[in-house]
Amino acid sequence: MTIPADEITAPWWEATRRGSLLLQRCGACRRAQHYPRALCAACGSTDLTWTESAGRGVVDSFTVVHRSPFPEPQAPYVVARVRLAEGPVLLTNLVGAAPDDWRCDEPVRLTWRPVGDGRRLPVFEKE
């Protein structure tokens, strides 16, 4: 699967090759955000810089998918909202444990799933 990069997301995708999860930080209001955008979602400023996430967070919410609409990933798998220590929430997958072993508020750390072209997607495992 090829996920296209554009002028806004290219630095984020390039960082995934190095195993770095980048967030945008607003110079006007100091809020961190993810996914990459042209404007700050909080105040509308275009004064955005890149900052590296520590890759730590907690499970905010999750669901177990029992019937996948595609051959990969194979079901069951866990789709979750992870609230990063820096504040933003990522929609991601939880890996490394059985689907029934996950709980909300569980501490997690960043790991990576290869996309196939050298880039990677952020996924999370138990702390």
Summarize the structure.
Residues 13-48 form the ChsH2 rubredoxin-like zinc ribbon domain. This protein is mainly beta.
Describe what you observe in this structure.
InterPro entries: ChsH2_C, ChsH2_Znr, NA-bd_OB-fold, Thioester_dehydratase-like. Pfam families: OB_ChsH2_C (PF01796), zf-ChsH2 (PF12172). The protein has one domain. About 5% of the residues lie in helices and about 40% in strands. With about 130 residues, it is mainly beta. It has a five-stranded antiparallel beta sheet with strand order 6-5-4-7-8. The relative contact order is 0.20.
Element layout with pairings:
Elements: H1 10-17, E1 22-26, E2 32-33, E3 48-52, E4 56-65, E5 77-84, E6 89-94, E7 107-114, E8 120-126
Antiparallel strand pairs: 1-2, 1-3, 4-5, 4-7, 5-6, 7-8
Pfam families: OB_ChsH2_C (PF01796), zf-ChsH2 (PF12172)
Domain ChsH2 C-terminal OB-fold: 50-113
Domain ChsH2 rubredoxin-like zinc ribbon: 13-48
Keywords for this entry:
ChsH2_C, 127 residues, 1 helix, NA-bd_OB-fold, ChsH2_Znr, mainly beta
* Average pLDDT: 95
Strand content: 35-45%
Structural class: mainly beta
* Helix percentage range: under 10%
Rg computed from alpha carbons, rounded to a whole number of angstroms = 15 Å
Query: Any idea how many domains?
Result: 1
| Principal-axes shape call | globular
Number of helices: 1
Low-confidence stretches: none
Q: Give the termini distance in whole angstroms.
A: 29 Å
Q: Within the largest sheet, what's the order of strands?
A: 6-5-4-7-8
Biggest sheet statistics:
5 strands, antiparallel
User: What order do the SSEs take from the amino end to the carboxyl end, as H and E?
Assistant: HEEEEEEEE
